[in-house]
Amino acid sequence: MSSPDDPYLWLEDVTGDDALAWVKERNDESLAVLTDSERFAELRDDLRAILDADDRIPYVRRRGELLYNFWQDAGHPRGLWRRTTLESYRTGEPDWELLLDVDALAAAEDENWVWAGAGVRYPDYTRALVQLSRGGADATVVREFDLGTLEWITDGFTLPEAKSRVGWIDDDTVFVGTDLGPGSLTTSGYPRVMRRWRRGQPVAEAEVVFEAAETDVSAFAGHDHTPGYERDFVGRSPDFHTTEEFLLRPDGTQVLIDVPPDADTDVEREWLLVRTRSPWSVEGTEHPAGALLCFDFEAYLAGDRTARVLFEPTPSRSLSSHAWTQNHLVLSVLTDVVTRLEVLTPSRDWARRELPAGPDLGSVDLVGVDPDRSDEYFLDTDGYTQPSTFLRGELGLDSDPDPEVLRTAPARFDATGLEVRQFFATSDDGTRIPYFVVGRVSDTPGPTLMTGYGGFEIALTPGYSGLIGRAWLARGGTYVVANIRGGGEYGPTWHTAALGEHRHRAYEDFAAVARDLADRGITTAQQLAIHGGSNGGLLMGVMLTRYPELFGAIVVMVPLFDMRRFHLLLAGASWMAEYGDPDVPEEWEWISQYSPYQNLRADEAYPPVLVTTSTRDDRVHPAHARKAVARLREQGHQVEYYENIEGGHGGAADNAQRAFQWALVFEFCWRQVG
Fold first, then answer.
1. Separation CA 184–CA 159 (nearest Å)
2. What DSSP line would sit under 641-656, residue for residue?
3. How far apart (Å, rounded) are the C-alpha atoms in residues 382 and 402?
4. What is this structure's pTM?
5. Burial class of 4 by CB neighbour count within 10 A (0 to 12, 13 to 18, 19+)
6. How distant is the alpha carbon of residue 548 from its chain centre?
7. Are 44 and 659 in contact (CB under 8 A)?
8. CB 85 within 8 A of CB 66
9. How far apart are CA 498 and CA 493, in angstroms?
10. What angle do CA 103, 105, 107 make, to 5 degrees?
11. What are the two backbone dihedrals, phi and then psi, of residue 435, each rounded to the nearest 5 degrees?
12. Which residues are CB-contacts of 40 (< 8 A; sequence separation ≥ 6)?
């Protein structure tokens, strides 16, 4: 259903002349205000120096015998794809073999290419399916690259710009889903039809292996290349939180993996792992949401439901993720939002032990494993005031040698006197909401910057940010991260507590944290700035319209804002499982209570607002941000706007753009609450 009373529908024309003229005018006005100070220039230059620093950790991913890295710096803003050996990496000054210079490619082809990743062919790792984005959009072109000659395969697997799914099966075959015209995409803009595409064959003539419904989010297909367990899987995602997956037999028949549609599955060698997202009764045993169960895969397909519980959540403990090495399963576990790793060994009857922990009130993240060849693992540990340490280890059968330190990142700001504390606020319904406070302990309230997300089961865990440290903490500010419902901090139940008609709980949680900060004397409403992007941008819009008295400044980044039309814009239809369907009257009833665009009022006293987005964001439509600003201006409120022409949903395509955008954010916040 459209909104006939909306005078700003014309701003939904992404690259229309009138819309872009409006964008340019708003950009010029706001940049004249926000970039005219020495502080802005200092912030921009400081942030750019951090982003481009040569002593950053070059994180690597193993492919066969070599370690691969993608690197951006001042001389290579679009980036270098390169590789080296472990022995060379250990020296601290690796001898990198350059594979692809994206800046040189962009210049040669007169395109604003942004690196979007590469799938390297197993097991020889001699070919790659490279994805390149124009300006950072989700849509990419796909090209086959020869990792021996370092040349493009001109007659290889290539695809024009689309939101494609593509992955290797063998040397001359891939699974592919792409835009082939009417009927090939879902209403969310993702592939509806998956094909088995053979080398030299027109993609439109490739064998269809699976078709999803047009109203599904997407279809998918993948090949498991594990030696001795080679298998193909196909399926569909009816919505953002449910999946129907099939084992694709060599004769083309499909065998349903019959698990609850909202469960997450992982087939590894002989095992089927199932992570529940809602309670599931198996053979008379009720397993809670957030449990991890293990079955024999072939026996399960035959009807055997004998389960082993590998993880069971508690009110304070949840499973964040898991990963396999050759002989072990590594679990990433959150306890009150602090990450720890556990190792389970199937050959030792799933014996359990802990890996070395990260810092207190910090995180330890599994960066990479080598499940086909070894028990090697790479870790990254950090905290709000502790820079990253990059480690490599190898798991043993009974115990684990201490991992070796490969790199330690230098401090990007002076953390002397800074403390990290965790508090709990009480939301409107009595739920305890955790949040982290980073800053100097003081009896005097001070300028504070707070963020949150609260959606799609994404957890905000502690992590080091040189940008926030240099631009905010080192200048005397306090930083706060609110772990509100809708996220994944306490597993799927924390997420589902704020789904659909219960969305208001996420917003009540964030407001509760803001009040708690004031009650503790950490800050005041006038000194509290908040920022968030995407679903977090929607959160900022709701704070603006429902709780304006709690904040001194609000930064709204690549946001959803018009929830009456979100499902009609770009990938918006895929998020109706999260928010609801605005075309269903009873669901619009609850959405309308918080949709920021419809709830803006001329007679309200709003704090100053900065809104940012990207013209090339093909996930969350830039019209959300544009229309928000147009309506705020119409009503006479103070609002600044910046729309980057490039950047996709991340808002920036290179380090210069990232530094500029974040300098705008920090300058705006310092002006309003500093």
1. 14
2. EEEESS-GGGT-SSHH
3. 17
4. 0.95
5. exposed
6. 28
7. yes
8. yes
9. 9
10. 70
11. -155, 150
12. 34, 663, 664, 667
Strands in 190-327 per DSSP E: 193-198, 207-211, 218-224, 231-239, 242-248, 254-256, 264-268, 271-275, 280-282, 285-287, 292-296, 308-311, 317-324
Q: Which of 200, 163, 156 is nearest to 184 (CA)?
A: 163
The first and second tokens of residue 485, run together, are 């419902």
Cβ-proximal residues to 253 (8 Å cutoff; 6+ apart), any chain: none
Token pair for 179: 């835009």
Measured from the Cβ of residue 605, the count of other Cβ atoms closer than 10 Å reads 8
Tokens of 148: 């021996």
CA proximity to 257, closest of 276, 242, 272: 272
Give catalytic residue positions: 534, 649
Residues in the chain where the model's pLDDT stays below 50: 1-2
| Burial state string for 84-96 with b = 16 or more CB within 10 A and e = fewer than 16 | beeebbeeeebeb
* Spatial contact of 597 and 562, defined as CB atoms under 8 Å apart: yes
Q: Of 133, 220, 266, 84, give the one whose Cα is nearest residue 647.
A: 133
Contact 465, 474 (CB under 8 A): no
- pLDDT computed for residue 221 by the predictor: 98
What residues are paired with 528 via a beta bridge? Answer: 448
Amino acid (1-letter code) at residue 520: R
In the DSSP assignment, the letter for residue 471 is I
Q: 608: which DSSP letter?
A: P
Cβ atoms of 673 and 552 closer than 8 Å: yes
Number of H helices, E strands in the chain: 14, 39
Burial of 105 (0-12, 13-18, 19+ CB in 10 A): middle
What does the CA dihedral 260, 261, 262, 264 come to, rounded to 10 degrees?
80
Structure tokens of 40? 């802005």
The three-state (H, E, C) secondary structure of 369-416, written as one string: ECCCCCCEEEEEEEECCCCCEEEEEECCCCCCCCCEEEEECCCCCCCC
Q: What is the pLDDT of residue 1?
A: 34
Distance (Å, whole) CA 494 – CA 483: 10
Structure confidence at residue 395 (pLDDT): 96
pLDDT at position 2: 38
**Cα 281 to Cα 288: distance, rounded to the nearest angstrom:** 9
Task: Give ∠ CA 204-175-200 in degrees, rounded to 5.
Answer: 50
* pLDDT given for residue 399 in this prediction: 82
Question: 258 CB contacts (<8 Å, ≥6 apart)?
Answer: none
Token pair of 622 as six digits? 């830039």
Identify the DSSP state of 191. B
Residue found under tokens 């005041």:
524
- Give the neighbor-by-neighbor strand order of the sheet with 264-268: 264-268, 271-275, 292-296, 308-311
